[in-house]
């Protein structure tokens, strides 16, 4: 067999989607290609990581006090360079930078705001496990010139696009512009993302639960009771599940999106707001999961309705299959969110 001649590249798919909206200018499509290009460069670097000695710590610490890995720094630079010169973006923000990233003065500013977690799951790098990139796109709210903090601190329901790239056994890009969730797999032989998962729908009830259970004793009672339900302790209330936890949000999220499941990073006594960041991790994944028929909550509030106060704000997160996320919210209501 020579191979199929009818493939849909990400470029063609985005153009076809856009043609449904006569008022569209093509700018958002171009922005998504910019990100896809960045993703290919990061994918290439992660594939070579073990060979070119870019593994290991840089010896610097980022704004969250975490050790930065070399690939974090590289991925961050790649995405900034892919986005900052195009005239499509007025401001950027990254998990790896303490302040919003202005567009350099020599380049024009555009109408979009892009935020990203350039390399998610970076502690997995040294053990050759999956990592990812998460991105989130908003329309600016300021009128002109360079973007300002107000452009960056918007609630998730205002996103115009969001997605992730998973550098796993293959590289996948999954995104939404509010018209469903679509997945593309990178064909390394031609360097193109090809449509492999059109219109992803996540099962109503999940097969898996994913949580760092070493924190169990530090969770509030509502979280403990929810996870006991997932163990199968209350079968009359929720289906018991299998446990899967990679420790890289993108990889855990992707598996659960496809197979059905729930991912939690709840509050605990050491991390009173959980660990994941609202703007770079929770909001974009919440937009995706809702578009796929799932749900996302901090236990009390819908993630997409949370108004961020600060750039690097963290929130507790329960995300995935709808029935499972609703169960978590019910357990919070019945057993409380007070620290144990
Ligand atoms: P990042 O590498 O971007 O800092 O994110 C790491 C996050 C996330 O990917 C993962 O779900 C979580 O940290 C795992 O945390 P624990 O090691 O506390 O389970
Ligand atoms: Mn992350
Ligand atoms: Mn990261």
Structure characterization notes:
The strands form three sheets. The chain has an eight-stranded mixed sheet, with helices on both faces. It folds into two domains: 10-197, Fructose-1,6-Bisphosphatase, Chain A, domain 1 (2-Layer Sandwich); 208-335, D-Maltodextrin-Binding Protein, domain 2, CATH 3.40.190. The protein is globular and about 55 Å long. Strand 11 (208-210), helix 5 (221-231) and strand 12 form a beta-alpha-beta unit. The termini are far apart. It has helices spanning 10-18, 27-48, 70-83, 149-152, 221-231, 249-259, 278-291, 322-335; strands at residues 57-61, 67-69, 89-94, 101-102, 112-120, 131-139, 159-167, 171-176, 181-187, 192-197, 208-210, 242-243, 261-265, 295-297, 317-320. The relative contact order is 0.13. Helix 2 packs antiparallel against helix 3 (70-83) and helix 5 crosses helix 8. The mean pLDDT is 93. It has eight helices and 15 strands. With 340 residues, it is α+β, with helices and mostly antiparallel strands. One manganese (II) ion is lined by residues 117, 120, 249, 281. The site of one manganese (II) ion has 6 residues, from strand 5.
